[in-house]
Amino acid sequence: MADQVLVTLDGVVHDPDAPLLHADDLGAVRGDGVFETVLVRDGAPCTIELHLARLRRSAAALDLPEPDLDDWRIAVGLALDEWGADREGIMRLVLSRGRESGGGPTGYLTVGPVADRVEAARRDGVSVLTLARGYSVDMAATAPWQLLGAKTLSYATNMAALRHAHARGADDVIFTSSEGMVLEGPRSTVLISRGRTLITPPIEHGILPGTTQQALFEVAGAHRFRCEVDALRPADLILADGLWLLSSVTLAARVHTLDGLSLPAPEIADEVSSLVGLAAETVGVELDAA
Ligand SMILES: Cc1ncc(COP(=O)(O)O)c(C=O)c1O
What we know:
This protein is an alpha+beta fold. Helices cover 31% and strands 26% of the residues. It is built from 9 helices and 14 strands.
């Protein structure tokens, strides 16, 4: 059982405190690469196959060489063995374009402990500010080089939005487009409920396809929920019965306060939170044979 795990894509387990990257790695100097963040529970990587599929799509969007997913599965298995099964962990898969001087992509993965804020967000929910993202819902189609549907390493603006919210006493952020449409959180997908209907905004509006939302929608029908994808405005968030931020690490964080307005918990709050946990633990969890 280790406190931190570091495995490179060639299957070598490294000392996590030893330096790994070259100074000219394009992931470090340009954010030129892709990543995935996966929750490890009971020694298993939640929805890992959904993450590997998104890693491949993100790499394709950046014109990176197609990742060999079997190599990743082997590295994931090695990292899980090192991490153990007695506590949750956060596994991060990183694939950069590699060194500026050449030599091909850099791939590695780490596992570390789950941040304290995660447990609090799952238990108590979060307060959220809506913030302008500064672009239109058209941008994914009109400017594909913005890589909106890809999970790239360039997260500095998302982190800046979170700091902006924290400085104003909020825990998290929901971005809106220049037309005032609801997009996503800096590290989460937006979900609302109306009765037993669960609704999330369309990925065509330039948001990341969330693995947690995808897994939830795969299981929710069998639990008497209807699932819909529909354009949402901030007023829809306020008028909804329930509002959540979904993500691989936090799973479901109920939004209890939006722009200072208190949002009561819906009757289905506990049900949704258990269902998201069930989805994460059961959808796409079998590592395809490597
Ligand atoms: C911008 C953004 N949107 C949505 C999500 C939620 O995706 P997932 O459920 O796969 O974690 C994330 C997760 O990190 C994200 O960074």
